[in-house]
Amino acid sequence: MIPPQPRQTNMTDYVAVIHKDRGSDYGVSFPDVPGCVAAGATIEEAVQDARAALSAHLALLVEGGEPVPPPRTMEEATSDPEYADARYFTFVPAKTPERVRVRRVNITLPEDLLSEIDSAGASMGLKRSQFLAEAARRLVARAPVARRTSTPVTAARKTARKGTVKRRRS
Question: Is the pTM of this model over 0.85?
Fold first, then answer.
């Protein structure tokens, strides 16, 4: 009899750097994923937001045809002089996304909101679609677990397939 093989997983741990300036929330950045940041009033909130931000950011890289950066070791990160002011270091697990099928959708937004989205996206080096996809992933990741029936990326895809959004009546 052949012994069972361990299940292969595509989870990767990335080093997260936790910063805290006087009078501000905790900030989290990733040395290996430039531009991926998160924040929270507590360390726990910041790390929770960091998990969602990292998964969304890596998914955007894949969708844009960019390579997913390999993570460095904790020793490499803690010895990097760029992070000498860091309060804490931790590992944040992220599911390394595979190539996903992208679907074009047509949405309607207020003009001023669209301008804000474009401006914020440009300041982060993101295209409009990338910005909106990352924002959607973060919200889906924060949804109560009981409501989610799949991973954030899969849930976003299912929502996109439906193509309709119901508005509340005032």
Answer: no
Per the CB < 8 A criterion, the answer to whether 14 and 91 are in contact is yes
Give the Å distances, CA to CA, from 14 to 87, 91, 128: 17, 5, 26
For the chain, give every domain's residue range: 11-152
What is the model's pLDDT at position 104? 79
User: CATH class for domain 11-152?
Assistant: alpha beta
Q: How far apart are CA 40 and CA 46, in angstroms?
A: 4
Q: How far apart are CA 152 and CA 168, in angstroms?
A: 23
DSSP 8-state class, residue 42: S
Residue 134 vs residues 4, 48, 112, 129: alpha-carbon distances, Å? 38, 15, 20, 9
